[in-house]
Amino acid sequence: MEQMTLCIDISKCTACRACQVACKNWNQLKAEQTKNRGSHENPPDLSANTWNRIVFMETRLADGKIDWAFFNDRCRHCDDPPCMEGAESLPEAIVRDDSGAVVFTEKTKELDFDDVASYCPYGIPRKDDVSGRIVKCTLCVDRITHGLKPACVQACSTGSLNFGPRKEMLRFVEARVKALGPEANVYPDPMEDHNTLWILPLNRKHYPLAQARPIPRRQQMAKTRMPIAIGAAALAAAGLMHFRERGLHDPQRKRAETNH
Ligand code: SF4
Ligand code: SF4
Ligand code: SF4
How many independent structural domains does the chain possess? Predict the structure, then answer.
């Protein structure tokens, strides 16, 4: 199967959370008891039963206006997944599918959760205490390999969630960034390294989850990859490519840093 990419256009998200519900529905994930924390943002974090969620972000801009944006947090489906380094003792436990999906299999039960989680720069893996598995978004690999869109994309009525062949999505990203203006940019960097991409209409300093901290890879994966040229060259020319940033996963610290 050709490589696919999911692209999230922040500028079109209304925080309706149909994507959260669709993910639970397709993956048979339980609802969670939550409480009013003084925010419409709910639930407060990813969990074994919540594989994507809308993070509410409010920023006062230089002109005094308030920007209210919604960041759909989920696995970045890294092309060279750092989390696979935490599964070196059992290489088939975490696999990268041809479609670009990074999938945590049943065998993750046999892995050390803290070790796997420590490799993810984005704080994504969660332990399912019932099944013993380590879980996260699968990119709906069980749908996309049968020609269907991911359940969350199917449920999104605003055009915020987009999915398609990698080359098409890179062209889409390029066009949207141009249309959104000079501050618009793409996260994460470099975008060729990820199969989930976010289009950010404003400078990324307005989006706490787009501030990854550097993390040295304990071991570089041996895999070599051909660079994907389409889109990247144009974006690089437009000054939109930045240096790679990686963050050390610490869910408590990350939540503390991103709560606002
Ligand atoms: S379904 Fe689309 S518009 Fe609604 S919260 Fe999810 S990404 Fe945003
Ligand atoms: S975001 Fe984290 S869990 Fe997802 S593929 Fe990358 S390293 Fe693995
Ligand atoms: S791609 Fe599938 S598993 Fe991932 S957030 Fe969307 S519905 Fe959930």
Answer: 1
Tokens of 5: 């990419």
For 201, the domain range is: 4-80+140-258
Pocket test for ligand 1, best of 70, 198, 199 (most atoms within 8 A of CB): 70
pLDDT given for residue 43 in this prediction: 93
Q: Record the pTM.
A: 0.84
* Separation of CA 239 and ligand 1 centre (Å): 29
Candidate of 137, 142, 169 to mutate for ligand 3, largest count of ligand atoms within 8 Å of Cβ:
137
Contact status, residue 161 vs residue 152, Cβ threshold 8 Å? yes
Q: 89 to each of 4, 104, 120, 149, how far by Cα in Å?
A: 28, 14, 17, 33
Cβ atoms within 10 Å of 19's Cβ, excluding its own: 24
Q: Are 189 and 79 in contact (CB under 8 A)?
A: no
Distance (Å) from CA 13 to ligand 1 centroid: 5
Q: Is residue 195 in contact with ligand 3, taking CB distance under 6 Å?
A: no
CA distance 180 to 15: 19
Domain CATH code at residue 50: 3.30.70.20
Q: What is the pLDDT of residue 102?
A: 98
- Pairwise CA distance, residues 103 & 109, whole Å: 13
Q: What is the pLDDT of residue 208?
A: 81
- Retrieve residue 2's tokens: 């050709």
Cα–Cα distance for residue pair 100/77, rounded to 1 Å: 7
pLDDT per 10-residue tile (average), the chain, 260 residues: 96 97 98 89 95 92 90 95 94 96 98 95 96 98 97 98 97 96 90 91 85 53 36 37 33 35
The verdict on residue 182 lying in a domain is yes
